[in-house]
Amino acid sequence: MCYDDNARPPLPPGQGGSARGEDIVLTSADGTRFAAYAAQPDQPLGAQVIIYPDVRGLHQFYKELALRFAEVGIQAVAIDYFGRTAGLTARDDSFEYMPHVQQLQLPGIFADVKAAQDYLYGTPAGKKATFLVGFCLGGTLSFLSGTQQDFGFAGVIGFYAGMSRNMGGEGTLLDRAAQIKYPLLGLFGGADQGIPNEQVQEFEQKLKQSGIPNEVISYPGAPHSFFDRRATDYAEASSDAWNRVLRFISAHAQNV
Question: Could you state a single Gene Ontology molecular function term (predicted)?
Fold first, then answer.
């Protein structure tokens, strides 16, 4: 498990503006209804984000993260993965997520993110540069979604993206790194026991060989899930991560 019910995203840098958020239900192309959380800035900028949660799906950490993005002017929608197998039930600590994780298929994920993208494009803010931001399983899915040309993303961002999960038998993230089509920002904990530094280095090397614009950062001594307001020992790493995410979005939003 990446974040429990008490985890909260760190605050972004600077003075945040006002924003509002709401629980919504989206419908995928195959008719699946799934939960999402939308956050609207009062003063929107030129970018939007779709948030991929960790293995537990859409829980409070990601709703608050969507609000934090909106407070700095970036419209956000966080999505749940499990509409096909768990419906619209709650994703608190009592949710038995692993049976549902094991049933995830990439075509369903891609259909759901397309529904989220269509939702963003249909809001009053309209069509803007769209980025994916994912955590843990969501980081892996962010990068795998980046292999799909049709989305037209401005960039893909992943925190602690696992390298060895073979999603749907189509290969691991390391296997498919060279297929990523969009600028990429990868953020890792240097002391993350589940993602060896050797894998992170191999991932970065494959991105460089393919020519994908990328920035891969590993924070020495930081564990998995270091990006948490409670993790005061890693506050500096969290602050740097926020700054890198916002700079990445600002830089690549202009290229779309």
Answer: hydrolase activity
Tell me, which fold does domain 19-127 have in CATH? Rossmann fold (3.40.50)
Neighbour count for residue 7 (Cβ, 10 Å): 20
Q: Which fold has domain 133-256?
A: Rossmann fold (3.40.50)
Interatomic CA distance for residues 160 and 105, integer angstroms: 20
Average pLDDT over residues 130-137: 98
**What DSSP letter does each residue of 34-58 carry, written as one string?**
EEEEEEEESS--SEEEEEE--TT-S
Global pTM reads 0.97
Overall size of the chain counted in residues:
256
Token pair 């292999």: residue: 147
Measure the CA–CA gap between 9 and 61, rounded to whole angstroms.
6
Element containing residue 63 per DSSP (H, E): helix 60-71
Question: 161-194 pLDDT, tens per residue?
Answer: 999 989 878 899 999 999 999 999 999 999 999 9
pLDDT tens, 89-133?
Answer: 999 999 999 999 999 999 999 999 999 999 999 998 889 999 999
156 burial level (CB within 10 Å; 0-12, 13-18, 19+): buried
Q: Tell me if 71 sits within 8 A of 16, measured CB to CB.
A: yes
